[in-house]
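Hi D.,

Good news: the full-assembly prediction came through. Inputs first.
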Amino acid sequence: MIGDYTYDQFFSILAMQGFAGLVLFSVFVLMALGLAIIFGQMGVINMAHGEFMILGAYVTWGTGLFVTNFAPALFPIYFFVAMALAFCASFTLGVFVEWAMIRHLYKRPLDTLLATWGLSLILQQTYRSVFGAREVGVTLPDWMMGSLPLTDIIEVPINGLFVMALTTLIAIAVALLMYKSRWGKQVRAVTQNRIMAGAVGINTKMVDRMTFGLGCGIAGVAGSAFTMIGSTGPTAGQLYIVDTFLVVVFGGAGSLIGTIASAFAISQAQSTMEFFLSGSMAKVLTLLTVVGILMLRPQGLFTLKIRR
Amino acid sequence: MSSTTSAAPRTFFGKDAIAFIVLAALILVVFPVALDIFRLNLVGKYLTYAFVAVGLVLCWGFGGILSLGQGIFFGLGGYCMAMFLKLEASSPENTAIQSTPGIPDFMDWNQVTELPWWWVPFNSFPLALIAILLVPTAFAYVIGAAMFKRRVGGVYFAIITQAVAAILTILIVGQQGYTGGINGMTDLRTLLGWDIRTDSAKLILYFVNAVLLLGVILIALFVKSSKFGRLLIAMRDKEDRVRFSGYDVANFKIFVFCLAAAFSAIGGAMFALQVGFMSPSFVGIVPSIEMVIFCAVGGRLSIFGAVYGALLVNYAKTTFSESFPELWLFAMGGLFIAVVMAFPNGLAGIWKSHVEPLLPRLMKRLRPPAIVSAPTKAPAE
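Then the structure:
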């Protein structure tokens, strides 16, 4: 017996808490992947990353609304369309922002931080004016509702499983894109040595723009996935931006594996502690630990050896 | 200040002295004469942010260290002051209806029955004053020492300070029984028996705040004109060269970060006194980054610019959010982008490049009649 629980119940709770942690981990990974590309590879601080995510969430919500009203037959599969649309919307906005703003600021990273913060404020207010200040939630198709019973006590929600599957898929896709494709090679070349990359004939400006767009697009997909677990409001993006940055910095900028590992560590620590402590204390302790470790090891968990 | 004048007489007696006198005249004479007490109190509130902005000029403008966590120090200073005021407001007579009289009301609501040990020093005013300066500075020292000794700087430092600001906010909100939670510490009434809510008290507090701000500006000017100020700029531009010249870069950075923190803490304490409450909404990520924009709008390289920046942005914020609340975030966002893209040196930069070249011409146009008229008048009489 542990406290008021039998061993069986205790392990079930641990397992379910662990699963909740895994879902949180998936969302963290999705959010952090986009940032790992933008911040890790390009060194650009995009404080509006959360707002790109929320754009994806609103696109998903809008698609859901459209489908229920005009094409109810498509409802069971609308989520896939919505995700594609979310990617396109965030990608387009990202490319535009890079063209209008970011490309002038590559040499001034701290100023990028302030400018993108301004962008995030503008986007937030735009969402509020267009969609209203209230949080919106999407209606999930029937097959995503409910949960799979594993044992008598342990149940896993299907939407959680779906998010996890989606995350795995996107993480693999990004890894392939960055490490196996010709384009990924160009991105890494530009990150490691911009001048030489330009000298061997890579169009660095185009690579920058596409990389930024891709990062934003993935944020859009993350937002789309996010609607499956929580509701979306105009300021929801701001709540996650610090966590996401910490995940990327903790993992070691520039390392995809590091990002995934640190997302895992942070989400598991938080959801496990949430069971024993109040939610806010769990978060405080998690973040404090991360900041503490970062003070001891500023380069993060995994580092890329790059000659600058 | 004698060392200031001897170290760099030109800088201190030159434009800076004129700017200082103009600013002093503005906040000590023009505002109190022109504004009613309600507006003056508002200006006093804006000026508390100027403390932070001046600190940021030293830290970010000269030192190149962007801290997104100045709200931490503003908040800690404010909370130290608020804790003292709260304890005074919760004397056993005032709180007789509580189940445990003599402790702040929010503790009673949260079933805390005894004053926590770290609240006890705040019963004494001198200790509270020391805490206002010491707690934030010590905190800044810990953060700074941990980061700068390991040569973490720039973007990483900004993100980590931001994370610390987030942690502190969550902690304050979460520990409602000890900190007042999301509502903060409200209902602050008296300072050593002196009612701070009356109009006369507000007027006096405004002047105390103004004088303190001018003092802080003098310190900042001193730092700027000293050898340390030049080292700061050298570090910002070529850190390695300064290091190779044999200077301990980390210690200089820690010092300037602590100084900025102490300035912010004074601002926070004056904020709590003038506004009469303190809440986590002045600690977190959003207020911290807004404080940076006060400094950026004024001009990150100009101590005086930062003061005007804090005044202007806050004035705009009040006016906008009174009449067009939905436009405010657009304006603020646009301000961030414009300041970075178009005017990286802020108002001070515009002044330097557009207004200052006009001044000599203006002077010339004004001067001849003055010189001509004086001699002609004298013989005539």
